[in-house]
Write a sequence for this structure.
């Protein structure tokens, strides 16, 4: 339910935010012949977290499904509690 709500909100945001941005940013870039504004918008910083998990030895697992479950568990264990 929450995933569906997030998806709907993301789509609504994009429907409302992208057209005005396209009407302002792209004509500004073509009129001024400067792409600096596009680079500035695209290069705005974010935060990334790198998590190193202990290795999974596929030889110790009986099937591909167990390997997939082990990898999924390792990935989900590094997520914040509200996202698990």
């Amino acid at each position: 339910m929450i995933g569906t709500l997030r998806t709907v909100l993301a789509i609504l945001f994009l429907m409302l935010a992208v057209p005005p941005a396209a009407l302002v940013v792209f004509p500004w870039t073509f009129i001024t012949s400067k792409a600096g504004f596009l680079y500035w918008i695209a290069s705005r910083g974010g935060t990334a977290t790198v998590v190193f998990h202990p290795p999974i030895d596929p030889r110790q697992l009986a099937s591909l499904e167990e390997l997939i479950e082990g990898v999924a568990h390792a990935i989900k264990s590094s997520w914040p509690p509200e996202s698990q």
Summary: The chain is about 60% helix and 0% strand. The radius of gyration is 21 Å.
